[in-house]
Amino acid sequence: MLSTSAIKRVAAGLVLAASGVAPFAVWLVAPAMAADVAAPPTASALVPFASEEGLQRLARAGAKVDFPALANQFEPQSNAAFCGPTTAAIVLNTVRGRSKDLPRDRSRLRAEDLQNMPPGADPSLPRFTQDNVITAGAKTRAQVLGEAMAVRDGKPVRDFGYQLRQLDQMLRANGLTTRMVVVDDAMPEASIRAELADNLKRTGDYAIVNYRREQVGQSGGGHISPLGAYDAESDSFLVLDVNPASAGWVWMPTATLVKGMRTFDTIENRGYVLVEAR
Ligand SMILES: [Ca+2]
Question: For the domain bounded by 47-99+120-277, which CATH number is listed?
Answer without folding.
Answer: 3.90.70.30
